[in-house]
Amino acid sequence: MNCKQFNTIPLEEVLLSLGHLPAKHNEKEAWYLNPFANESQASFKINKSLNNWYLFSEGIGGTNTDFMKKYLNTSVNEVLDWAQKQNFSSFHQQQQIKKSEPNYRIDEILNLQNPNLKRYLQGRGLSPKVYDHIKEVRFTIGSKKLYAIGFENLSGGFELRNAFYKGSLLKKDVSIINLSSNGQDKSNVQDENIKGVAVFEGFMDALSFIEMQRAFKVDILVMNSIALLNKSIQHLKNYSDINLFLDNDNAGIKCKSEIIRSFPEAKDHSVIYSNHKDLNEFLIYRMKNNVSNKAGKQSDKLPEQDKQQVRDQEPKIKNSNGFKRKR
Are strands 24-25 and 135-141 parallel, antiparallel or unpaired? Predict the structure, then answer.
């Protein structure tokens, strides 16, 4: 990665990777508390169209590179080395666009059948119960033929996973699985009958939720990238009962705080897996350690509202029968 490439990454995504969320924002700009010092007023402004920043309290500004030089107190080369190690979704999209035209194609999209992919899911604590929500995607990059588990988003793109590969194809977007008791396809996410939603960062956590449930009535929203937080918040405006199952790392905690700031009634269920990075890690731990006999002891340390969830080892929300993927 060079400076030109790094400077094209939305500075909002860079700040989010560092755990900083805007105090206020709109389509044109975003305001943050000073990321370099403790301040009570938001004085750090991002111009979204120019992708540059200005810190009013110090009278300085510049590009992504200028920001990280000051933030890390280091050289340009070390900034680029740091940036190269990050998982910026927008940079991967740039790479995919450059490669996609001549270098990759989707060969087939099938129901899951590859035994290696089934074994991979089994290792992640997932059974055939989740197969209806994923696809087997066979694709070619360059001269290499590959296959992976595919999780579709609202724009027809796919998040891809196998034991050795993590990536995405086509356009990046959030995913919504619409679940309903009557089995009807809710093609309009603004349907007034849609009330409950469970929110996840990645689709493995969403599949873990489905795996751990016996019955439920709730839609599932998967962000697929913390860079899509603002787009996710726009979708959440269609729900009155918001349930958060976000990661227990710094970025996940900041995302949770931002969502709760926009929706104060949103419920945080991360206490269920408080000793683990995310819900899937908790599911794997439960599978490997047979922790159901320990649930009583663990629940004694939890708020009353989450004790029954831990006893049952499943994050219940509501009861339901059927579900359909949002197309």
Answer: unpaired
Helix/strand/coil percentages in the chain, nearest 5: 40, 25, 35
Per-residue buried b or exposed e for 158-178, using 16+ beta carbons within 10 Å of the residue's own CB: bbbbbeeeebbbbebbbbbbb
pLDDT(101) > 60? no
pTM above 0.70, yes or no: no
Q: How far apart (Å, rounded) are the C-alpha atoms in residues 254 and 260?
A: 10
pLDDT digits (tens, 9 = 90+) for 8-56: 888 888 888 777 888 888 888 999 989 888 888 889 999 998 999 999 9
Strands 42-47 and 29-33, bridge-based pairing: antiparallel
Q: How far apart are CA 147 and CA 109, in angstroms?
A: 10
Q: Are strands 104-110 and 135-141 parallel, antiparallel or unpaired?
A: antiparallel
77-81: long-range contacts at Cβ-Cβ below 8 A with a sequence spacing of 24 or more? 79/6, 80/1, 80/2, 80/3, 80/6
